[in-house]
Specification:
- Residues 49-181 form the Glycosyl hydrolases family 2 sugar binding domain.
- Keywords: Calcium, Glycosidase, Hydrolase.
- It is an enzyme of class 3 (hydrolase).
- The chain has 1035 residues and is mostly beta strands.
- Helices cover 10% and strands 34% of the residues.
- Helix 5 links the parallel strand 29 and strand 30.
Length: 1035
């Protein structure tokens, strides 16, 4: 079989003294190379075949799957035997050649042409290399043989890496390549570049030989190395400052230092990068040139104060991330790294914790370029490496990652997996002396305890004296945690000077494709569906809630009233950026009605299809352009506004209409306010005089790179006005389009009562009168083709029928939290042409008013006033029934497209939404997002789409939640299955919060408490009230 190898020259140039790189494997999961392979156990064992490298062999149909929490007796112990033939260029003879493995799980034995390259490497997540210069045949074919043992022979390695709450795999899952250097070369460069321009570097030299009077001399007879010269460049090649040099002595460690004027410091908000070019010289001749990308950045931990970057106190808005993709396991690609960092930036995050191991180097490159703080972690889930192995792995991690400006802290293990003997190594090996933490512990003036309750601590946490930032909090199992409770936690953290923020657990569900189960997605039950994203990066509701809470531009609470002057209070929660760097676009929009043809009046809710197996290479990695020199290799454009942001309708400026006229949509740009970090100011939108002729005001703010921070929405019309507009039109109008065209004229009649307007419209349409018939148990009401049945013993609607047949809607209203309503009887009377059926109740009963009004127009009005059963309650509202099996979808005006919980109210947008039915269990199987079932905020109207006749319901009351059915829950939901009331379709004044895997909602902050409402002795003035209009025409 013909082999193809890829040769690249570092820095992209074939220049004297530059190292050369030859990839033996592919460069990532999206570009692999087949090697010969034999697996000793499990699937497809005992036969030579081929396998793509890099990759985890389980995902390629070999061996056996295990989760880290499996018992040792159940864990597979197979080995993978790899072979690959390659040709080394003949002109590499006389150079130093190394073979480099970016990562291999786990114990790795390497041979070249039958000779062992070096000691077996133990540790799965670390770059390691061997000098194979004497083992190669130059200009001829060579044989690479690698034996990988999935389970290490070292018990501490298994305890640290493979006894954890994550999937454990086997295989060469990161790239393998050769590097050729001049014999005398710079082996390693470590840079400490401060935010003030001070720079020092330590260079480790190799291959130096003592020479005669001329100084040093290499084995090839080249001049002996005598100095090193360094120069800072921008990434596009412009020199910054002057060059600086140091002499080479007998020591192989060379130190250089300088101060570079006029630099731009690195931060997540402005990730400015530079290049340091180091040249090894001998008698003025270039021996070796190497370059390292870096940023000027100073990190300080000030005890009993906070974490400072470039002299500015910061707070982490972070998340924990595994290196993972469902079809490739731990094998990833740069495209996936870009995708993931973009998603974090889209959530307005500024930090990521590497859990629980160092990531791919390209992930850190992307964090450098696009701007994220990184916590880089030595593996140790609950157990630590022994000192011998751990010491080597600490060096490998720091050697690889030391120059990344994004890396601001080191983590020595996790949740007790700390080897304290390794702590001094971090201090000694890191030229920058970054702070070291023990995640989950109180250590070195930091408190990083996990899953702390809101307001936790007595002499500890934020009630103690250490800088506090939980390295895991708000565990996002299923639909819990994540954005739920975050508003409470974040305000607590933001306003406490000892808080340095925190890291949500975690980024995405770890659902792996099981090649041994016909491609089933497996999360190992409740162990791995912990993300705010699905396994293929599907966005859950918490994604947008986090985006809303962590936006660096915070809007003051505002009720838009007729006196609104277009001015909004804004707070700048950036750390380095003035708000005058952002752009501000407002949009006024008039929304359509229930019968309008669905259009772009809110973002599309169509879920992203899961990529097919092996589709990681389809990830686009589109990124906004960073500052000059920050990411010249990561070109792209600003991503489209996300689902849920109402951005579909916000693009483009609509020409101003004539005075007094109103279009369906009008947009404009507001002047950016001058508000410094930490300050508050005023944003003047400069709205037109006719702004109040629209239904919704949207405001989209984008950062300096064009990335959307958030889109806010404010209602300009209350539900009563929208109900007047919709319910003023007679049922049975022949054209839905005509109905929509009539809407603007209906606005002028908003002062009239809905019932009177309906009656007038009905008379014009010559509808039949409303007729009443009575039986022993029911009231039978008919108007035109509509026939309604009401139970005389409860006043509940029990039957709906029209000319097209029966509509199985009814069995309500039922109070959600009680069945004892003190019902006494019913009265009937006519008001004009409309029939009123009104229940009477005991004076102190929970239900105070239940009144049906059947209009000759065909609209049916319901007024309910009630009290919750108790002062504290999970929910309040009224319910009806409709068979779930008949539902095909829903269209509504309100907040969407995601459901909400009491402690996760942010992240939705007021608009028109269409959603097909799904029975998604968040984090399970092949989910479709947004979920269909749940609670939806700020309802105006809803149209239930069924396999029979649709039902339209208009809500004329403020602050009403729509409840759509009851979600299915996983087997072990912990605290993530909030209660739901009786019935199927509900109209609620209060809904429950949601908890996390380990925390009850009540311990997650004020919004996680039960709803509280005092009825003042059943005083009618304090009753909760809701008014609904029903359309049972079947349109």
């Amino acid at each position: 079989m013909k082999r193809i190898v890829y040769i690249t020259i570092l820095a992209g140039l074939w220049l004297r003294g530059h190292a050369q790189t030859l990839y033996l494997s592919g460069t990532g999961s999206d570009h692999t190379v087949n090697w010969d392979f034999l697996c000793t156990g499990g699937q497809n064992a005992g036969k030579w075949t081929t396998i793509p490298v890099p990759g985890n062999w389980e995902l390629q149909g070999f061996g056996a799957y295990n989760y880290g929490l499996d018992k040792d007796t159940l864990k597979a112990r197979e080995q993978g035997l790899y072979r690959y033939r390659f040709i080394v260029p003949e002109d590499w003879n006389g150079k130093t050649v190394k073979i480099v493995f970016e990562g291999s799980m786990t114990d790795t034995r390497v041979s070249i042409n039958g000779r062992v390259a070096g000691p077996i490497h133990q540790g799965a997540f670390y770059r390691f290399s061997y000098d194979i210069t004497p083992l190669l045949r130059y200009g001829r074919q060579n044989l690479l043989e690698v034996t990988v043992s999935k389970v290490s022979a070292n018990r501490s390695v298994n305890q640290a890496e493979r006894h954890g709450d994550f999937w454990v795999f086997g295989g060469i899952y990161r790239p393998v390549y050769l590097q050729a250097f001049p014999v005398q070369h710079i082996d390693h460069v470590a840079i400490d570049a401060g935010g003030d321009g001070a720079l020092r570097a330590e260079l480790r030299l190799a291959g130096l030989r003592l020479a005669g009077p001329g100084g040093r001399e290499g084995a090839t007879g080249a001049p002996g190395a005598d100095s090193v010269r360094a120069q800072v460049f921008t990434l596009d090649g412009r020199p910054v400052g002057g060059s600086f040099t140091a002499r080479v002595t007998n020591d192989t460690l060379v130190r250089l230092q300088t101060v570079v004027p006029g630099i731009l410091p690195w931060s997540p908000e402005a990730p400015q990068l530079y290049q340091l070019r180091c040249t090894l010289l001998g008698h003025g001749q270039t021996l070796h040139v190497t370059e390292r990308r870096f940023g000027f950045r100073t990190i300080e931990l000030r005890p009993e104060d906070g974490i400072y970057v470039n002299g500015v106190k910061i707070k982490f808005k972070g998340i924990c991330r595994h290196s993972f993709w469902p079809t490739t396991g731990r094998a990833t690609s740069k495209a996936l790294s870009i995708e993931d960092v973009e998603l974090m930036k889209e959530m307005n995050m500024n930090a990521v914790r590497m859990s629980h191991y160092p990531p791919d180097d390209h992930f850190l490159d992307v964090c450098d370029s696009l701007g994220l703080f990184v916590l880089d972690e030595l593996t140790g889930w609950h157990h630590a490496y022994d000192t011998e192995v751990g010491s080597r792995l600490v060096r490998e991690m720091i050697d690889r990652d030391v120059n990344h400006p994004s890396v601001v802290l080191w983590d020595n293990g996790n949740e007790g997996g700390f080897n304290f003997d390794l702590d001094p190594l971090f201090d000694r090996l890191d030229i920058q002396h970054r702070p070291l933490i023990h995640p989950w512990a109180v250590f070195r003036h930091t408190d990083t305890q996990h899953y702390i309750n809101y307001d936790y601590g007595s002499g500890t946490g934020l009630h103690g004296h250490d800088v506090t930032f939980p390295t895991e909090f708000l565990h996002a199992l299923y639909d819990g945690g994540g954005g739920a409770g975050l508003q409470d936690y974040w305000e607590w953290m933001w306003n406490d000077p000892l808080s340095a923020g925190g890291f949500i657990w975690d980024f995405s569900d770890e659902a792996v494709v099981r090649t041994d189960r016909n491609g089933e997605l497996d999360t190992d039950g409740d162990h791995a569906p912990d993300g705010v994203l699905g396994p293929y990066r599907e966005k859950e509701g918490s994604f947008y809630a986090i985006k809303a809470v962590w936006t660096p531009v915070v809007m003051g609470r505002k009720e838009v009233t007729p006196s609104f002057d277009g001015r909004l209070t804004v707070e700048n929660r950036y750390f380095y950026t003035n708000l005058n760097r952002c752009s501000y676009r407002w949009t006024l929009k008039r929304l359509g009605g229930p019968w309008a043809v669905p259009a772009a009046q809110g973002p599309s809710t169509a879920p992203a299809a899961a990529p097919p197996a092996g589709a990681a290479d389809s990830l686009s990695g589109v990124a906004p352009a960073p500052p000059t020199g920050a990411a010249d290799s990561l070109s792209g454009v600003a991503p489209a506004p996300p689902t849920g942001a109402a951005a579909d309708s916000l693009s483009g400026v609509v020409p101003a209409p004539p005075a007094g006229a109103a279009t369906d949509s009008l947009s404009g740009v507001a002047a950016a306010p001058d508000v410094r970090p930490g300050d508050k100011g005023v944003l003047d939108l400069g709205l037109p005089a006719n702004w109040n002729q629209y239904d919704v005001l949207y405001l989209t703010i984008r950062d300096a790179f064009g990335r959307e921070l958030y889109t806010w929405s404010w209602p300009l019309r209350l539900p009563e006005a929208i109900a007047e507009r919709v319910a003023s039109m007679p049922v049975g109008a022949p054209q839905a389009a005509a109905r929509q065209a009539a809407a603007p004229q209906a606005v002028a009649r908003q002062a009239a009562s809905p019932v009177a307007t309906q009656a007038n419209a009905a008379t014009a349409a010559t509808n039949a009168a409303v007729r009443l018939a009575t039986t022993d148990t029911t009231y039978e009401v008919t108007t035109g083709p509509l026939h309604l049945t009401f139970n005389r013993a409860s006043a509940r609607l029990t039957g709906v029928r029209n000319a097209q047949g029966t509509i199985p809607f009814g069995q309500g209203p039922l109070l959600c939290d009680t069945t004892d309503v003190g019902f006494k009887g019913m009265d009937t009377h006519y008001t004009g042409d409309s029939l009123v059926l009104e229940a009477t109740f005991e004076k102190k009963s929970d239900c105070q008013t239940l009144r049906w009004t059947v209009c000759p127009s065909g609209w049916v009005k319901l007024d309910v006033a009630y009290f919750p059963e108790a002062y504290t309650t999970d929910y309040m509202g009224i319910s009806f029934s409709y068979p779930e099996a008949k539902v095909k979808g829903v269209r509504w005006m309100g907040e969407g497209p995601y459901r909400v919980w009491k402690n996760r109210m942010k992240g939705t947008t007021l608009g028109l939404w269409d959603k097909a039915y799904n029975n998604t269990v968040t984090g399970q199987g092949n989910p479709v997002y947004p979920e269909f079932k749940g609670y939806y905020a700020n309802l105006y109207w809803v149209r239930l789409l069924t396999d029979g006749q649709p039902v339209t319901i208009v809500c004329a009351s403020r602050d009403v939640f729509l409840r759509l059915y009851t979600p299915a829950w996983p087997a072990h939901a912990y605290n993530t299955a909030p209660p739901f009331p009786v019935g199927d379709i509900s109209f609620m004044h209060a809904i429950p919060p949601i908890g996390t895997k380990s925390q009850k909602a009540e311990n997650m902050g004020p919004s996680g408490h039960q709803n509280m409402y005092y009825d003042y002795g059943k005083s009618p003035a304090y009753a909760k009230r809701v008014t609904l209009f029903f359309n049972f025409s079947g349109e």
